[in-house]
Amino acid sequence: MAKTAIFLADGFEEIEALTVVDLLRRAGIEIITSSIMGRKEVTGSHNITVIADELFENIDFNALDMLILPGGQPGTTNLYNFEPLKDRILEFDKEGKMLCAICAAPTVYGKMGLLNGKKACCYPGCEIDLTGADVQTTPVTVDGHFITSRGMGTAIDFGLAIICHFMDGNAAENMASKIVYKC
Fold first, then answer.
1. Which of 3, 67, 98, 100 has the most beta carbons within 10 angstroms of its beta carbon?
2. How confident is the model over 28-38, as pLDDT tens digits?
3. How far apart are CA 167 and CA 164, in angstroms?
């Protein structure tokens, strides 16, 4: 079974994070919410506080197949400034393991130089930080071991793309139908 983690920092975009968590859990894909804040309570950019499943330091990264970054501000900045997460992202990139991000969060990968020559998308206005990327305007862009998406309005598409990666297109279509999405 696939195992993923989504990383939460104060100022994360709640819908981008929780939509992905909800869809993956419905599909039977394990996803752990992980706080990088040193406490399990993390407050999103719209003052919604959630309790993460685990603290970053308790995550077994060897057991993970994918890392997911939600956008939001200052959440994306907090993710980028957290060096232990960036170290893990570099390890995943080197191993060709899946790296996903939505909204402003693809800029974390861009600023790290990981998107050179890759197709990627992000929140409008953040494109300058997709360093070296072939910037797309599609709701979701998949290129190699990267899945990127544009924002809160594309969160369902993003979650379905992750389901498609681990399962298949039929599983993603079935999930879309179950949640009455684009019927």
1. 100
2. 999 999 999 99
3. 5
